[in-house]
TrEMBL record:
Top EC category: hydrolase
One GO BP: pentose-phosphate shunt
Functional note: Hydrolysis of 6-phosphogluconolactone to 6-phosphogluconate.
Record-level Gene Ontology MF annotations: 6-phosphogluconolactonase activity
Gene3D superfamilies per UniProt: 3.40.50.1360
Family of this protein: Belongs to the glucosamine/galactosamine-6-phosphate isomerase family. 6-phosphogluconolactonase subfamily.
Protein name, entry field: 6-phosphogluconolactonase
Family annotation (InterPro entries): 6-phosphogluconolactonase_DevB, 6PGL, Glc/Gal-6P_isomerase, NagB/RpiA_transferase-like
Amino acid sequence: MELHIAQNTQELSENLAAWISNYIQEVLQDQPIFTLALSGGNTPKQLHMLLAKEPYKIMIPWNRIHFFWGDERAVPFEDERNNAKMAYDTLLNIVGVPEENIHVMRTDIPPEESAAAYEKMLHTYFKEGETTFDLVLLGMGDDGHTLSLFPGMPVVHEQDAWVKAFFLPAQNMYRITLTAPVVNNAACVIFMATGTGKSLTLKSVIEGTFNPDKYPSQLIRPEDGELHWFVDEAAAGALEM
Ligand SMILES: O=C1O[C@H](COP(=O)(O)O)[C@@H](O)[C@H](O)[C@H]1O
């Protein structure tokens, strides 16, 4: 695991935009397309907005990137809480990506149906037991959840399905999420975490004992791929390292 600490969210986003741009261009020297899974929430917004501006808007071959999501809140696309809408508003509508390269988790059909359709679509890109995404971007909630793997929910233990839908009583909402095994087969996984509200959780996730029921983010340990944490000083405040 590699830890990258920036002074604040702005610096973190700048460092990460440069890192991602280099990585995409490097990978695309050896293969025709790049597969990228996005996260939702607030943390990635600044990163998206930087990637949507020059120099990255020009440097990155956006039409060769295929977009996926790590998780989705089962609310209509127009709802501000919808993770795909956030990415369209902050990045995809600005850089102009061919629609056929964008794979949203549908929220206009029942969640279980959406999860099954998403898994089927993923199998057209990735084979069982082989490397999946070139890059998965993840956030971490203040409670230690990542994707929609929430503390205490059975989905945390899913070993077979790549995508699951379930009802999250705490938010009175269905969620659709990739599971830990499919993310752990990615070539590279990057977590972003900012703010003092995440500092104690970050310490437990990185330095504490393994307890994924309490801290599902601990489940993310790529088998052969890279794992990076991009955090700001506020989030890193409680770390000993
Ligand atoms: O609900 C969610 O939360 C996490 C973390 O969000 P943040 O606002 O604390 O960055 C996010 O990664 C996930 O995609 C989203 O559905």
